[in-house]
Amino acid sequence: MKAHPPDLPPSYRSEYFEEIDSTNSEALRRARAGEAAGLWIFAGRQKDGRGRDGRSWVSEPGNLHASLLLRPACNLQTAAQLSLVAGVAALDAVRALTDSAGKKLDLGLKWPNDLLLDGEKLGGILLESSTAPSSEDIYVIIGTGLNLASHPELDDIVATNLALYGHNAAPHDALIALAWSTQKWLDIWHQGENFNCIRKEWLARAIGLGKSIRVKHGGEEIRGLFDSLDENGALLLDCGEDGLRRITVGDVFF
């Protein structure tokens, strides 16, 4: 483990690991031990990287694997909004890394936590939160994975990476872009007071809005039109005669 150069926003610090079990796991350990907010943990490779619902996340060298420890002054329900904050921040970070090269990439967000490029998965976000021991204070870990140099071959998801589009972004540069973008959108979010702004920005980057989608969770599959997000970030699905359905968890398919 080693500290990294101070290219991050002033309120942040980072620690780099050549190899680690999971950046989220390390950030969780630090949070439980009382580590202050603002710490980025990132690694060259994860041995046990994971995504939402405990899914394995392939974490090869050359890609970005990073987790941010936060201690927001809000409740856990409000803190869940940070998943959308992180999505907007991640997409804008990729834009910052690539827009200067010429043609803009076709980037978009898929509810609840995927970043897509030309409809294929470029990255994902894993939000984990809890209450600190012997305290009502909460901590939140925002884990972000971006396929910079390579991508996994998955059975159920088509993935891609930036190198295929001629962008050779280094993980350190990607972390810096992500940290500055995250700081910007956290300031706008302002402990949840301006979530409506985040919601609008997320919807402006959304894929599938107004179109027919399928949402799977457990053994259930629901079909309808992607209508919007509610005031807490839940997906609103127009199911026709069955009315508007509020979805808080699930996988979206187009």
Considering the chains and any ligands shown, give keywords for the structure:
SH3 type barrels; 32% strand; 2 domains; 254 residues; alpha+beta; five-stranded antiparallel sheet; BirA Bifunctional Protein, domain 2
Quick overview:
This protein is α+β, with helices and mostly antiparallel strands and 254 residues long.
SSE layout and pairing:
Elements (H helix, E strand, L loop, with lengths): L1 E2 L9 E8 L2 H10 L6 E8 L17 E7 L5 H4 L2 H17 L8 E4 L3 E4 L2 E12 L6 E9 L24 H19 L5 H10 L7 E6 L2 E10 L5 E4 L5 E4 L3 E3 L1
Parallel strand pairs: 2-3
Antiparallel strand pairs: 1-2, 3-4, 4-8, 5-6, 6-7, 7-8, 9-10, 9-13, 10-11, 11-12
Would you mind describing this structure in some detail?
This protein is α+β, with helices and mostly antiparallel strands and 254 residues long. The chain has two domains: 2-204, BirA Bifunctional Protein, domain 2 (2-Layer Sandwich), CATH 3.30.930; 212-253, Roll (SH3 type barrels), CATH 2.30.30. Helix content is 24%, strand content 32%. β9 and β10 form a beta hairpin. α3 (82-98) crosses α4 and α3 crosses α5. The longest helix is centred in the last third of the chain and has 19 residues, at 171-189. The mean pLDDT is 92.
**Topology, number of strands:** 13
The geometry reads as: globular
How would you spell out the order of helices and strands? EEHEEHHEEEEHHEEEEE
Radius of gyration, Cα only, in angstroms?
18 Å
Q: Considering the protein shown, what is the CATH homologous superfamily of the largest domain?
A: Bira Bifunctional Protein, Domain 2
Q: How many domain units? A: 2
Mean pLDDT: 92
Q: State the share of residues found in helices, binned by percent.
A: 10-25%
Main β-sheet: number of strands, strand sense, barrel status?
8 strands, mixed
The helix count comes to 5
Briefly note the structural class of the backbone: alpha+beta
Q: Which CATH class of the largest domain?
A: Alpha Beta
CATH architecture descriptor text of the largest domain: 2-Layer Sandwich
Kindly report the spatial arrangement of strands forming the biggest sheet: 1-2-3-4-8-7-6-5
CATH topology of the largest domain: BirA Bifunctional Protein, domain 2
